[in-house]
Write a structure and sequence with these properties.
With about 140 residues, the protein is mainly alpha-helical. It contains eight helices and no strands.
């Protein structure tokens, strides 16, 4: 289950929200992402370090991109549709896509934003179910 895997990376391995989402999707869906590539999303944690777009959302978008984009994004319209679907469902489920706003609801001293990462992973799992059904992963 993606949410449990994301929780493992976030809580047990002290990864940030973006890294946890991407690593979890990589493990669950065999995306073939190496450890060096995970660094590319590291800067998205904490809302890009300034409370903007949630890192869990950004890490999920990166996973969808890896699963759906062929040579380039412009020739992979399904990726755009899945990203938009994920972003809408993320906001519907968590109440916002902004780190600063989400922290006000989900941040706890002892577990950071573990609940937000868990809920975001549940949303991503639903989208990946569709991606898998379409044969992209």
């Amino acid at each position: 289950m993606l949410s449990e895997t994301a929780k493992k990376y976030y809580s047990e391995q002290n990864r940030n929200c973006a890294e946890a989402m991407l690593l979890a999707a990589n493990e669950e869906y065999g995306l073939g992402i190496d450890a060096e590539a995970v660094k590319l999303v590291g800067g998205f944690g904490g809302g890009m370090g300034c409370g903007r777009a949630c890192g869990a959302l950004c890490g999920g978008i990166a996973a969808i991109g890896k699963a759906c984009i062929g040579e380039k994004a412009h020739s992979s319209p399904q990726a755009r549709a899945y990203c938009a679907q994920f972003a809408r469902a993320f906001v519907d489920t968590l109440g916002s896509d902004q780190c600063e706003e989400l922290k006000a609801t989900y941040m706890q001293d002892d577990v950071r934003c573990a609940r937000a990462v868990e809920l975001g992973a549940q949303v991503l799992e639903e989208v990946f179910g569709q991606i898998r059904a379409a044969g992209s992963v």
